[in-house]
Amino acid sequence: MFQGFYNLASNLIVQNRNMNVISNNMTNISTPGFKNDQLLQGTFQEEILYRFERGSRSPVGTTTRINMADEVVTDYTPGGLRETERSLDFALSGNGFFSIQSGNGTVYTRNGSFNIDDEGYLVLQGMGRVLGENGPIRVNTEEIYVNGQGFVLSEDGYEVYGRISVVDFENYEQLSKAPNGAFRSNAQPQAANGTSVKQKFLEDSNVTMAEEMTSMMAGQRALQSSAQLLKMYDQLSGKAIQLGSQ
């Protein structure tokens, strides 16, 4: 009977974590360039249970019935490109990431909703300055033109402010999620191949609200069912103890 406590309690923990992942996806559905996360679930390959028999501990065996959270994986599928008519909005057509100089090192993002700070540098709000091939890009004006290769020019095309750094990674498993939908990596990035920069466009999040709502309802049902069954197990255990003491 006590095996049920392990099964149900583990499922409650997993479903609670799954709901956190789903909630984060839904919160960032409007964040440009955000990439959807998914919790992979599995079972314990071996769970060692012991019993005391004649003063010695002997293994009962193995089981794979207990649910567990395996890992959170990110879907890097590009979102749709949306035209904004704003000169400081940028999207990437192809693989790769913008590089941002944050307070805790360089982070990488598909969010190209840039602004200009008090010193005239291109920035991603709440994260840091946009990096070019030779450091942060200073423009001092919103009247800029950016071509497909990422060169940032004055509106008349006579002055070059820099070139937006667009990088990529050989293996996306080297990336880890950072705040605001950005990524970190200890691996050395490389220049993105065949990727173009589109001005006055933003990449939408690849989160699908209908799918997240469906997953959330399924998770809520699993949580409720496990909680109710766990309560029943607790009542049966108490009843068994009561009868055994009589």
Describe the structure using short key phrases.
246 residues; alpha+beta; eight-stranded antiparallel β-sheet; three-stranded antiparallel β-sheet; 2 helices; 21 strands; elongated
Helix content: 25-40%
Order of helices and strands: HEEEEEEEEEEEEEEEEEEEEEH
Instruction: Decide which structural class fits the backbone.
Output: alpha+beta
Number of strands: 21
What portion of residues belong to β-strands? 25-35%
Radius of gyration, in angstroms, nearest whole number:
26 Å
Give the mean pLDDT: 84
Low-confidence stretches: 45-58
Distance between the termini: 20 Å
* Oligomer class: single chain
Please describe the biggest sheet, giving its number of strands, its sense, and whether it closes into a barrel.
8 strands, antiparallel
What is the 3D form? elongated
What is the count of DSSP helices, taking H or I runs of 4+ residues?
A: 2
What does this structure look like?
A hairpin with a 2-residue loop joins strand 11 (128-132) and strand 12 (135-136). The strands form seven sheets. Strands 7, 8, 9, 10, 11, 12, 16 and 19 form an eight-stranded antiparallel beta sheet that branches. The chain is built from two helices and 21 strands. 25% of the residues lie in helices and 35% in strands. It is α+β, with helices and mostly antiparallel strands. The model is unreliable at 45-58 (pLDDT under 50).
Condensed summary:
Mean pLDDT is about 85; it is low at about 45-60. About 25% of the residues lie in helices and about 35% in strands.
